[in-house]
Amino acid sequence: MDYTIFAVIIFVVALLVFGGVFLIRPRRPEAPPKAPPQEREDGAGTTTAEPEAAEEQGAGPVVVAPEPVPEAPPAPEIEMPPPSAGRLVRLRARLARSQNALGKGLLSLLSADRLDDSTWEEIEDTLITSDVGVTAATQIVESLRTKVKVLGSRTPEEVRGLLRAELLAQIETDQDRAVRTEPHAGGPAVVMVVGVNGTGKTTTTGKLARVLVGDGRSVVLGAADTFRAAAAEQLATWGSRVGAPVVRKDEGADPASVAFDAVSRGTADGADTVIVDTAGRLHTKTGLMDELGKVKRVIEKKTPVNEVLLVLDATTGQNGLRQARVFAEVVNITGIVLTKLDGTAKGGIIVQVQRELGVPVKLVGLGEGPDDLAPFDPEAFVDAILGDAE
């Protein structure tokens, strides 16, 4: 046998054997199927998936529990204010406390054993310091002197009756004190509220809306005081409490356009009344007063203005009268709203302001509560002054 051939055969066989060790590998066992992700319940009761192991690359995104959607705040509860009828009577005690000094002082003087010239002068001074006005005070004193002289005797009841009659004669007027808020064929009634800063004008607008809603009327408010952003916010708060929509624009917008849009909204909604709150205009600034006249003219392009209510602070006295005169020159004032009457003994301003402007006091503010605005009733007012002074 040829040993060379034999050696070659052995080499080839060995090569095949050792080569198979490296070339032929055993099959890797298949990985078991992944178990579905375990679910857990978080504190909010929401079911979420556990995240995959961190070492496994290419895993799918982790499912994160959605944040709970916050509930919408509940709508403000609509209030139902008391009706206007009888409001002044209900507030009589408060009015009597504030005006007690006037009534008590007058009754005490008139009940003196001797009514000489000095006493009558003191009575007149008391009336003047109560803002009745010089002319009205003189008339009251002259009338009382005549009646006391004719009467002769002066019992407490007679003195009170005489004083009551004189005060009523000065306060009463043939003019209608009702605020004209009933809608007409062309649309809603329109009430403009005017006055200088600090008199309570925007607050009066909101309180008047409550009076009308309490009487069953539907109301739209116009925030035409665009010089003061807080005024629109304040009016929106008043409106939300009684369900009255408020038409407003950004600070600095044209007040006349706000007023016009408010009337348009009231007409479209079929509202009974639109109340337009105007800026607290300083009566010394002619330009602003002219703009107030513009607001009225723009409204009247769409519908008549039924009321222009001038809000006066009862504590301002003669300064309030000067304000009233300037406003009366710009717009046709139809009525007075006298605020802060609960904090002063100078209720005689009612007499003087009616004489000066020739328009009646229609509403009075007797406190800071939301329902402290009341239709003015002369008899209830005088009885409140004299009632606690007996």
TrEMBL record:
Biased composition (Pro residues): 67-83
Entry keyword set: Cell membrane, Cytoplasm, GTP-binding, Hydrolase, Membrane, Nucleotide-binding, Receptor, Transmembrane, Transmembrane helix
Keyword Cell membrane included in the entry's annotation: yes
Membrane topology term: Peripheral membrane protein
EC number annotated for this UniProt entry: 3.6.5.4
UniProt GO BP: SRP-dependent cotranslational protein targeting to membrane
Name listed for the protein in its UniProt record: Signal recognition particle receptor FtsY
